[in-house]
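Hi V.,

You were right to ask for the full record rather than a summary. Here it is.
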Amino acid sequence: MTLEICTNSYQSAIHAETAGAQRVELCSELAVGGITPSYGFLKKVMNKLSIPVHVLIRPRSGDFTYSNAEFEIMKTNIELCKELGCAGIVSGILRDDFTIDLERTNELIQLSKPLSFTFHRAFDWTPNPKNAIKELISLKANRVLTSGQESSAEKGIAVLKELQEIAGNDLVVMPGSGINPENVGLFKEHGFTEIHCSAIQSHQTIPTPKISMNSQKLVSDTHIAVSNPEKIRQILQRIQSKDD
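Predicted structure:
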């Protein structure tokens, strides 16, 4: 069984390799489900690790339905990953109704070649997972990362087994979310060949500051925070009026 560790920092990636993991998925900001890591972070890891590195291509937090500009950013980041010698891409795009955007996802898969392509946990939002996995097989994706559409892979084991039966040898179903030393045997028992987890342990690095830089109101699956042009104009008007 292949163990893929989701790593959100350079030190996490080093720990994954030294502990014996066979592969890492590199991302940033696990608190929002992960976004694409910076170029500097990615390059540093690629220069150090000897195990395969898969990279999350997700331009922002929130939903998985992207604008044309965001789609171009995703494609540019895939090209950078190929140049740096990464082993795989982890990505995917949905439509507004949560079905897989087959055209755009296929474009990402084709662009990623010869790298491996994993459709990420956007899969867990799809309304018909059995149909969705057949679509990914038709697109020739290499694997799908999924919790079985539950809050944890352990809770979703029944759906995961059904998906694995449908996929057969055409697609790797890789369980992920909440896998730990206590429940990993469940996935080995049911014949899964790959699993995904973060093995994260939080530790305090500094005393608690007097104000927090985190903003819980910006963490949302259904809302995207963007700058408001009208607010910008109003601020400029106030600045300019004072200057006058």
